[in-house]
Amino acid sequence: MKERCSKYEGLFVFQDSEALMSHINECEDCKAEYEKQQKVSELINEVKFYYKNKSSKHKQFTKVACASILLFVSSLSLGLAVKNEDLADTLRYGTTLSAEDLGFPVDSYGLLMVDE
Ligand SMILES: [Zn+2]
């Protein structure tokens, strides 16, 4: 198996683009590598362009997304507190309220009495 040319990276980083281009012209491996990289940079430029165009909308969207997440998280914790009555009472009054505390008629066990 033929060893893959590894000059590309070295040329790309340390040599001027002329040396790189002349090597690319005579080396299949580096040509392929170069074309691959060109495609990637094209892709990056496309994405950059897209975000540049959408940047104001994108920022707006980010703000809305952040606000939504904050709202979601806070409503979630609030929802949990409300669902968990004991927790909600503990948060509001510092203690868990019994049925008696809430003004309901209770028996000696503290259980709710229901008239029959
Ligand atoms: Zn090469």
Polypeptide structure, described:
The protein has 116 residues and is mainly alpha-helical. It has a domain at 1-53. Helices cover 71% and strands 0% of the residues. The protein contains five helices and no strands. It has helices at residues 7-14, 17-26, 28-53, 55-83, 85-93. α2 packs across α3 (28-53) and α3 (28-53) crosses α4. Zinc ion (ZN) binds next to α1 and α3.
Keywords:
single chain; 116 residues; mainly alpha; 5 helices; binds zinc ion
What's a quick, concise take on this entry?
The protein contains five helices and no strands. By secondary structure, the protein is mainly α.
Walk me through the topology.
Blueprint (H helix, E strand, L loop, with lengths): L6 H8 L2 H10 L1 H26 L1 H29 L1 H9 L23
Helix pairs in contact: 2-3, 3-4
The structure holds zinc ion (ZN).
The residue fraction in helices comes out at: over 70%
Bound molecules: zinc ion
Classify the secondary structure makeup into a structural class: mainly alpha
Number of helices: 5
Order of helices and strands: HHHHH
Low-confidence stretches: none
